[in-house]
From TrEMBL:
This is Photosystem I assembly protein Ycf3. SMART domains: TPR (SM00028). TPR repeats lie at residues 133-166. Gene3D superfamilies: Tetratricopeptide repeat domain. Residues 1-19 form the signal peptide. Keywords: Repeat, Signal, TPR repeat. Pfam families: TPR_17 (PF13431), TPR_8 (PF13181).
Amino acid sequence: MKKSILLSLCLLCSCTTTHQSKQTEISTADARISLGVAYLQNNQREHARSNLLKAEKAAPEYIGTLMAMAYYYDFIGEMTQASQTYLQALSIYPKQPDLLNNYGTFLCKHGHYKAALNYFQKAYIQTDYIKVADSLENAGLCAFRAGKISMAQKMFKQAISYEPDKKVSHFYLIYIENGKRGTHD
């Protein structure tokens, strides 16, 4: 009996230590990600890379690290590496809505409209997703870029139904409506 209690306590301490260690790794990664993104925004690519690589070393499979690295690779024009990083993240977090939305944005930006629309849909159908309007608006923008105006209009209307203050969606709806009437400003 004493051995089983002792074993249970050891396992509990081990789990607590592992949990604390994981939290420390994630906190370290988050700090490095924040710095890396700030450096990217100031176009200081080497400092950004250094901090993001430190985040990757601290927590290589953490969703924040993977998304930041994919963003970094896209930012510096390494499309293949960005795509591979997104796919790696999706293999670990296949239903993470922010990741699905970001990958959809990446795909649309590079002209892969059909695949992008699929990822936006996967994002906005997640029941726990709080940024549904953002994914719908992104889907609308992508459909618009692809020349699918009716689909874009539908997505913009849905985005507005979730968040009535979506200015971009309102702008594109007005633009589409004016285009249908034959007036172009």
